[in-house]
Each structure stands twice: as C-alpha cells, then as structure tokens.
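We emphasize that the prediction below concerns an isolated chain of 123 residues; any contacts that depend on oligomerization or on bound cofactors are therefore not represented. The input was used exactly as deposited, without trimming of termini.
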Amino acid sequence: MFKTNPKLAARLRRKQRIRKRIKGTGKRPRLAVFRSNKNVFAQIIDDEKGVTLAAASSIDREIRQRRRELGSKKDVAAEVGRMLATIAGEKGIKRVAFDRGGNLYHGRVKALADAAREGGLEF
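Result of the prediction step, given as a token string:
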C-alpha cells in the first residue's frame, strides 16, 4: 500500500476498520473528521443517499478571520466543532455517529468532538 509512509498506512487501516462498523443513515448521519497538519474539516454525511448534510472547516471565512485570536490548532478545532453543531441544529440534526477517520481520539479530534457535544450534537 504505502511502503514509504508507515504512519499513513496505519491510519488508513484504522480508518477501514472504523468504516466497517459506522454507517451514516437518515436518522443518524455520520460525523466525519479529517485532520491535516494545518487544518481540520468536519462534515455530517448521510451514507444511504451519499449526501453531505452539513460541513465546517478551519478554512471557512468566519474561522479564518478569528484564527489569530483563537490561538492554538486545538482551539481552532473546537471552534469548528461548535460551528458544525450550530449548522446541524439549524437543519434539525441532533444525533450523529462519530467517525474519527482513523485518527486517535486525542488532541484536535477530541477538542472538535467535545465542542460539537457542547453545541447540542449527541454521539
């Protein structure tokens, strides 16, 4: 698979294991998190229809403008979680299945999840 990068290969194996168990439905869509070195992206997906219902990321205009005052990448990820919870609440989405995308539940991924819970999402 990826002989040159064993960390990426391990993350992709974890991602496949997670996705075998987690499926987003109309009643309980999947909250998928992607974390790059600089940014974090989150979207709520209905896998049955193949549609993204809500999305937020650290490159959105509202967050980009406040990036300096937010400070660390962890704080930025928490703001993405709050923003996603707000968008989901406006669309009537309360319950989701959390898909950490093969990343460890630690740091930015955990900050995003905790902020989304505070914002009203249940998972």
